[in-house]
């Protein structure tokens, strides 16, 4: 029957095909430059750390007996039909069951290492390549995320720079170990969900992204509540439940719960035993865990670190000594304050605020401080992804020297975390 223009004018209008994804990327020189900058910085930082081989918590790629690190060893064992760490010795963060050591970790951080199992020559470098590669993907996603929620022009690049270089996504990616990888994977998955939320809003994709994020960091499951409510309750006149949207959103979540249950069942004999409550840990953390893995009694210490934890001083370079229990987000990533500028009246923002608030509850009630022996408040990475869209919305209204300074300070302080890892790791 022809297009509307053909029917109205009688003139045949040549059809114009929509540009492909690759064509759009090629035409977006800013995005290409962003991707290049991210790769150069992340690869360069990872390489510099390897020169000194100063890796907090994870140790060198191969231990004294020539064995891979935990993530790689777990992947090797899984391919060979076992779920323990043997023959890798480990003192902390392991559960002893039937004389075997099992790693207390979620399933998704192990998955990328499975790709390296057939290639023994890469076992030593996989623990460095995997976190770096996932970090690069997360940093790449920061730009489309900022563009979806922010204004047109160059301002979204500031938000993307904050997400990639002004949060602990950077240090967790380039320092790299299996626990840090879990956080970076969760951030990348949340970014996918948030980009889709501002786009076509396909329930299955949002549900899948959050489900995968929960396989890295179980706290991400709490974001399912506000986003699920916003998806299934919609309609122009009155409220109605969208059954199809609910089903498409819920199925990946249910699948993730089943995977997690089976994963714990084969390791610990119960789908409800994660290992975090029984793993070997140091005496300080063990005393806190005795009060409860999650407890309101942990809130005062955790909140004090999150809001007011500062640096100590030492006589030699690099002078500032961070608290290994964590320190204030106002020092590490002060640009998060920009999110307040998004306001609280717009109901469309409730899923973002709700997700951040709900996830902050287990973060603040957890016995492990901010993530022991980590620069900054590592566990805050679980809710920070939901604040970044609010920052992008806020800079639509106001973006001056104050906002720019806060982002620059965030990049500076996170950069110091890299310097600390280079010269003074714990």
Question: What attributes characterize this protein structure?
Answer:
426 residues, mainly alpha, two-stranded antiparallel sheet, 17 helices, 54% helix, disordered N terminus
Number of helices: 17
**Separation, N- and C-terminal Cα atoms:** 72 Å
Provide the β-strand percentage band.
under 5%
- What is the count of structural domains? 1
With strands numbered from the N-terminus, the spatial order across the biggest sheet is: 1-2
Provide the structure class.
mainly alpha
Low-confidence stretches: 1-11, 54-65
Rg from C-alpha positions? 23 Å
Overall pLDDT confidence: 88
- Per DSSP E runs of 2 or more residues, the count of β-strands stands at 4
General shape? globular
**How would a textbook summarize the main sheet?**
2 strands, antiparallel
Tell me the series of helices and strands, N- to C-terminal: HHHHEEHHHHHHHHHEEHHHH
Helix content: 40-55%
